[in-house]
Amino acid sequence: MLELKNVTRRFGPNTAVDNVDFAIPEGQMVGVIGASGAGKSTLLRMINRLIDTSEGEINFGGVRTSALKGQQLRNWQRDCAMIFQQFNLVPRIDVLTNVMLGRLNHRSTVASLLNIFSDEERAMAIAALERLGIEKVALQRAGTLSGGQQQRVAIARALMQQPKVILADEPIASLDPRNAQIVMQSLKDINQSDGITVITNLHTLDTARSFCERIIGMQAGRVVFDGGPDDLTEDAARKIYGADNLEDAFSEAVTSTSLNGSRSKSSGSERPPVARPAAEQNPVYA
Ligand SMILES: Nc1ncnc2c1ncn2[C@@H]1O[C@H](COP(=O)(O)OP(=O)(O)O)[C@@H](O)[C@H]1O
Ligand SMILES: [Mg+2]
Fold first, then answer.
1. CATH number of the domain residue 184 falls in
2. How high is the mean pLDDT in each 10-residue block of the chain (286 residues)?
3. What pLDDT, on a 0 to 100 scale, did the predictor assign at position 251?
4. How far is the CA of 270 from the centre of ligand 1 (A)?
5. Is 7 part of any domain?
6. What is residue 103's predicted lDDT score, i.e. its pLDDT?
7. 41 C-alpha vs ligand 2 centroid, how far in Å?
């Protein structure tokens, strides 16, 4: 269980995250949505301790992660892998090495300094690439891949951390709809087969509704919606995005996983069916 208790983050006079309070049980797939500036990134960054909270506390499995220091803090950062919009790979080195870099937090300093990877780590990295369907590019330099492939490499690297939680900050914002779909499906598969909790910030509502079993909507730093995909009515969307930006929220043209540009009828479209777990399976917000 990941638990946020009255979490607030201020930047000078501005409050980026305002008294946020929720709990996420292990294995849940959660989408955090909201307009630009709503506080989504700040929220994820506090969970993984890239930044500190101003007030409140964050606990995972009964441990107050918001207060950890030193090695324990590094262990926590290993347990919650982060995926970014811009992939954050090392473009000039090969894909396999990029993936193995996900092991850095598991290794001794000397092994890290010498850049020595064991056969086991190599096998693990190849298995992760296979799982994401990109083993063929293992020896290519990461910078030569398409955005969709790079994001899959980043997910493989995250898997190497053997994380308990994956935090993804707008992982599909730079991808075309087809690759966006592949990346979201990969995250969902990992969530379902490994039971890893996934919390992903998403710009559009459509994607969150298709892939996440729980959606948290933020507006001006506050949580204004917390429920299942079917609870996300137009009224709820208006509360999250504001009446003037509704168009944006439903926009299929940009940053969306919809392949045919419409939520309705996909006649002959290649959009695969997406499992939507029933709300009753998630008693936490029932
Ligand atoms: N490092 C920072 N310094 C100052 N203000 C920041 C910083 N990071 C975020 N903010 C502010 O906090 C608010 C929330 O930002 P952010 O968490 O990035 O929102 P989102 O990810 O939803 O777009 C914004 O007003 C943003 O300008
Ligand atoms: Mg952001």
1. 3.40.50.300
2. 98 97 98 95 97 98 96 94 95 95 74 74 95 96 97 97 97 94 96 97 92 97 97 92 72 51 37 35 32
3. 58
4. 37
5. yes
6. 85
7. 4
Query: Residue 193 sits in which domain range?
Result: 2-87+164-285
Which residues, judged by CB distance below 6 Å to any ligand atom, belong to the binding site of ligand 1?
Answer: 11, 14, 16, 34, 36-42
The pLDDT value recorded for residue 254 is 44
Q: What is the DSSP letter of 51?
A: S
Q: Are 43 and 66 a contacting pair, CB within 8 Å?
A: no
**For ligand 1, atom 10: residue with the closest CA:** 16
Question: Ligand 2 centroid to 58 CA: how many Å?
Answer: 20
Domain tally for the chain? 1
0.85 surpassed by pTM: yes
pLDDT of residue 118: 85
H-helix or E-strand spanning residue 203: none
Which residues are 219's β-sheet partners?
222
Q: For 59-99, give the DSSP string.
A: EETTEEGGG--HHHHHHHHHHEEEEETT----TTSBHHHHH
Domain contains 120: no
> Atom 25 of ligand 1 has which residue's CA nearest to it?
37
Query: Does a structural domain hold residue 125?
Result: no
Contact 63, 77 (CB under 8 A): no
pLDDT of residue 256: 54
Q: Which two tokens stand for residue 25?
A: 């049980």
Residue 203: inside a domain, yes or no? Answer: yes
